[in-house]
Amino acid sequence: MMYTDMVTIGFTIVITSILAVWIVKSIGLKHGWVATVRKDRWHQKIAALHGGVGFIPVIIVGLLYLGYSGNYIGATDYYEMTTYWQLIIGASILFLAGLIDDIWQINPLSKISVQSFVAILFIWSTYPVYSFTSSALINNTIVFIWIVGIINSINLLDNMDGLSAGIVIIIATTIILLSVLSYPNIPVSFYIAIILVCGVMGFFTFNFPPASIFMGDSGSLSLGYMLAILSLPTDLNLKYTYLGFVFENTNIQMLLVPILVMAVPIFDTSFVTLSRISRSVKISQGGRDHTSHMLVSKGLSEKHAISVLYILSIIGGSIVISSYYISNMLFTGSLIYALILTSLGLFLNKRKSKIENG
């Protein structure tokens, strides 16, 4: 019954998100709330701003419905409930902070402070299931860095039409498939990820190149936070016990799973960060030096460039999923995948870019 209901809920969210984003786009174009063409930005046509206002509230309302319906969240499971509500609270806070930044452009330190606050709030209020090491301090530090890092990686990935939204859909779909592997004990992550995919799909309809609206920080910060939480081993995804008989939940394996799922945002952030440090450029500064831009500079079209990154993201998720069926696939696949990404990074950095970097 619940799965049938999810079809209806998902369809409703997609249609509502499409309508809401269209309204936000129409208002933005009418009132001049648009992104103009700039030297340090990639887009070549005017597009409406504040796309996150259209689909993030739809996602949050969908999550609230799940939480209050009592059919999907274990009402008697305190830790599951606490983690679930922290996901909603953190996403809501970052949505508002991102919207403020989109409108008034707050400084990077203020943005990091808000991100740090929601990360610390999550760590403080949820059950410590992240047993990467025997030290609670080290475990919590890893989780803190992960949450803040993924939030910013999704934000930085929003640098070309359709890229960030498409990667988010792929990552969330991977989480759905991983959740299904635990059948008949379907975790809450299954329902959350479906709502996430459906909400972002509504926005993606207008963001696929050539984009007519951008999500802004109100969208990317919230999405980054939700994906960071969903990819951690928590009560929301049964702490990855659906893969337990293959992985035995050893420390390195518990780290590899989320890294593989989030590989493309992590790779792009690392690539840009190292590039800017080597050129003594501020990491927070905008620029045309992301992985997608470098692929275009090597001769690919924009659609082909984002397709390459889509495929790389699918490969990362596929390695984790196939590990359920193939012994040692996680370690072997991770090694091969790391070599592929490293080779790509070296190739893109080998010759001088044809694009003027910001």
Please tag this protein with its features:
358 residues; mainly alpha; two-stranded antiparallel ribbon; 70% helix; globular; disordered C terminus
What's the structural blueprint in terms of helices and strands?
Blueprint: H1 2-31, E1 34-35, E2 47-48, H2 52-69, H3 78-104, H4 108-125, H5 136-157, H6 163-180, H7 188-207, H8 216-231, H9 244-247, H10 251-261, H11 263-278, H12 291-297, H13 302-322, H14 329-350
Antiparallel strand pairs: 1-2
Helix pairs in contact: 1-2, 1-7, 2-3, 2-7, 2-8, 3-4, 3-8, 4-5, 5-8, 5-11, 6-7, 6-8, 6-13, 12-13, 13-14
What would the average pLDDT be, to the nearest integer?
87
Strand content: under 5%
End-to-end gap = 53 Å
Order of helices and strands: HEEHHHHHHHHHHHHH
Helix content: 55-70%
Q: Which segments are poorly predicted (pLDDT under 50) over 5 or more consecutive residues?
A: 242-247, 352-358
Based on CA atoms alone, the radius of gyration comes out at: 20 Å
* Overall strand count: 2
Tell me about the largest β-sheet: 2 strands, antiparallel
Q: What structural class do the secondary elements suggest?
A: mainly alpha
The number of helical runs is 14
Largest beta sheet: strand ordering: 1-2
Query: What is the 3D shape?
Result: globular
Provide a descriptive summary of the structure in words:
The protein contains 14 helices and two strands. With 358 residues, the chain is mainly α. A two-stranded antiparallel sheet has the order 1-2. Helix 5 (136-157) crosses helix 11 and helix 6 (163-180) runs parallel beside helix 8 (216-231). The protein is globular, with a radius of gyration of 20 Å. The termini are far apart.
